[in-house]
Specification:
With 613 residues, the chain is mainly α. It is built from 27 helices and eight strands. It folds into four domains: 50 residues, no CATH class; 212 residues, no CATH class; 100 residues, no CATH class; 83 residues. InterPro entries: DUF1800.
Amino acid sequence: MGNITLTRRALFTKLIKKLLVNAQEKDPLFEKYSRKIYTGRRYSSLTNPKRNLAAKLGQETERVTNVTSGLAAYTGTWGTSEALHLLKRTGFGFKKADVDTILNLGMNQAVNLILTVDNTPPAPPVNHYENENPDENGLPYGADWTNNAFAANDVGGDTNGNRTSGLSSWSLGLAFNQDITIREKMTLFWYHFIPVDFEFVKQSSNEYCNSNSARICYKYMKMFRDNATGNYKSLIRSMATQPAMMFYLNNQANTKTAPDENFAREVMELFTLGKDEDSQYTEADVIQAAKVLTGWRVQNLNTTTEATNFIDNLHDTSTKKFSSFFNNTVIPNIGAGELDLFIDMIFAKSKVVSEYICRRLYRFFVYYDIDANIEANVIVPLAQHFVANNWNILPVLDKLFKSEHFFDMANRGVYIKSPLDVIVGTMRTFNLNYNVEDIANYEAQYHLWNQFNYAMYDMQQSIGAIPNVAGWQAFYQKPSFHEYWINSNSIQRRYGLIDYLFYGFDIEKNGLTTRMEVDVIAYVKQFPNAVCEDPNLLVNECLQYLVPIDFSINAKNAIKTQTLLTGQDSDKYWSGAWRSYIANPNEMTLSIVRTRIRSLLLTIVEFAEYQLM
């Protein structure tokens, strides 16, 4: 008998039916992520264990009440909750200092700051592998390899593998070390939207890819980082001839005698027009597009001046005729210039392209559920704004992040964090050591970053390892979208890593030991002392910063009693302990408050709500 594959939704449906028959076999993970109503959306909740399982079966829709807010400027409260919402959606986690910074600015200036991207290129990835696997080109330890090519096709494969791994680690390091701007989050948006898989490119049939792919993958990522908030149409034109994309979607092999439709199809279906009902390009259009795209070849990959050039004798010289969807456009034989005509033809379908991209932006930064109200009140006017601003992405982000819709309570605390948001966000929020003590110990630094890239891989997201050309399912795949991040394996790994970070472990490499442990006392000391010594205020403050949804007074009291009061019934058990520690921070007083604060913070981060933003 062949294997039967169930979707996750189908699997859970079967599980629920079984649970109804035998309530004693309840899956605690399903219970933990049961949905709860919250201001117009449904969100996952740990705090609703008694909800009837039978009721769940009939509730297929995410929306409880209509969300009618639109792109009008937000004029509501500007406080900690709003600042945290903005920072979590535009970056990976947040620093307390970032919250303080934008709180003092006001909403408009805060968004302006976040969208003011410094396009200065970061320091490039370097030779971190020399001590274990000497560079086959003799490149020194710590040297930039991004312009160091292997001329022969029979050497450099091991070094290229180390460089490829280093590129992923370095990219994650940039996320850890992000500034307050949206640059790294937008780099991820572009990468998931128009991806290449590093290993797939490395394994290309081109004779020089196995030893030089890391360089072109670096330049591919650099294209996104340099154009984080730039012009979308220009980005598509640049991407079309990027060597990494040429190999990934096989346009390198597209020729007049053997046309390859792969890139032609995906540039329309995934990167510009989408698959929604308004996108009516035909199979015949794909064939014609493939002809337009013939003749482009990556050359000189074994040098530092590799480039994608147009080779006239490989190009299909016929006249390319497109369907009525493209207004029966005819692209004549003009060689290399046909590519620009093709892109112009696609972008002439401005309504389709702009609305598709705005839906992708919406699902990445706001929420996946786009109903008729949101389509009319957010997507359509945002798309019109996009076109009016000549395909520049910055005005679109500005309009969205300053809107009443973005700050609508229905859009807060409903979005399941990606593994990047969980890992990078947790480490940044709790001020963990994502950089080693000796900045010149590249081996130790890249090893540390790589450990967390491996951890993300186990959670089904890893920089450089994309599942397919459509990107990660959670950002586009109906019907579950962000729920694809959560399954019995991934959720245990999420919580397991968080526990490790609180109880502590060492990462050792190249003679350097980096302690990975949340300094719980340093974390709460970011708040005023008056907050720290009052258990009610401290619980409230930690909940506000760590989970996006407020808890009831009863829930807060239960958390306080269980953690800071260690089961006692008077607030003085905590207040006295904190005052004693502040007055005399010796080993005993330190141990008492540290144990209780760790219990408080661990209790909070183990709530399902911590997985939301």
